[in-house]
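User: Second chain of the day. Same drill as before.
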Amino acid sequence: MKRLFLAALLALLPGLAPAAAKPNIVVIFIDDLGYADIGPFGATKQKTPHLDRMAREGMKLTSFYAAPVCSVSRAQLLTGCYGPRVSVPGVYFPGQGEGLHPQETTIAEHLREQGYATACIGKWHLGDQAAFLPTKQGFDRYFGIPYSNDMAQPARGTSEPVSPLLRGDQVAELLTNPQQSRLVERYTAEATRFIRDSKDQPFFLYFPHSAVHTPIWPGEAFRGKSANGRFGDWVEEMDWSVGQVLDTLRELQLDEKTLVLFTSDNGPWLVKGTDGGSALPLRGGKGSTWEGGVRVPTLARWPGHIKPGTVSDAVAGTIDILPTAVALAGGTLPTAPAIDGRDLTPLLLGETKQSPREAHFYFSGYNLQAVRRGPWKLAITPQPEKGAPAPSPAPRLYNLDQEIGEQTDLAAQHPDTVAQLQALAQKMNAAIGGPNPTSRRPAGLVADPHPLYPFAEAETKPPAKAAPAKPAGAKP
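Assistant: Same format as last time:
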């Protein structure tokens, strides 16, 4: 009786109640999904009922930014930094000697320090050498293809292209292209298994799909079911996968304990025609720093914490996921090395409508092409766009609140805004852009890279810079 009374008394005393439980965190990262490719952002030809449900039950983020292409976008998400800061400018290829530096601290490593189980299931694309794989970057488990699904090569003694499916850091299977039709199904089974296995402790699931990158391989149960060809079919299967994750959380009574973020690595690959998606009403697509190349459809769901049916147009992005996750887990970030992202918790919980960052910077490789603050976006380079006439010379100023499609240049009418944004761009470019940055960290390098399986033809490995597999000071 005395113990019950004491427990009740302690629960009422400020500062003595048990600390809030660390939330589970699930990040679902789709490949090449455009701004208008899911129902909550305007898609009609393909149906996405589970993502529609996410939007109803959570928040839609309409100014959420990734990067123009695959590898850099993943580096930004996992490190909280713009790609140039961590020397990941573009796309890695099989057998290449570069990757995300092992010394960079990922979300998985931060959360593992807070007692989280961690898993990466799907496309990695931050280097396929042993020193760069997910199991060396804080993930307890890895299952997936370590680069894009269009990078298949025939194995020695064969002629049919195959992709390596890894479990941990070992090649478990070599998948032919048609066997990719089971990727979503198999990834989803692994993801839900991890959730079940980890239900009694906080967990971080990073779920980067190979879908809907070309080649498009929807599962048998989804082929021909959408009104948008095989691309729409694969979007619908990806939506099914989201539903499986949400249903598993609900079944295990983890809904209110789990933040689920859904987003994409870049805009649609428009040059692929019907095998690409749509970014309308945005301009441009994958590979560009027009809004259509980097502004991606994003949803956040956390029942009991994120107010249902809300919409935020505050500027945010993949670089903000790491500081948000660390804050929610009760951790703190060191003051060095620098990260570019900021904690989105107040925004997600409805405590503010303001972006935690002063500006967002649009890099293509190491080239800073544009900067956004509030509604204003200043293009400081020509910004190439395939299939479209060259825009007028930079700088060009757009008001994205008034015209989301970036057509009307307002630079002449707002010289003060142009000058302010140019100053922000110059400062950031001096730090991490261009040929002589002051705050860029090194890339990860291995001296003698090899593909994960022997290719059919003589290996033509890209030249590697002389460097140890683990640079000095790298993590153990």
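Residues 24-357 form a domain with the Alkaline Phosphatase, subunit A fold (CATH 3.40.720.10).

User: Great, on to the next one.
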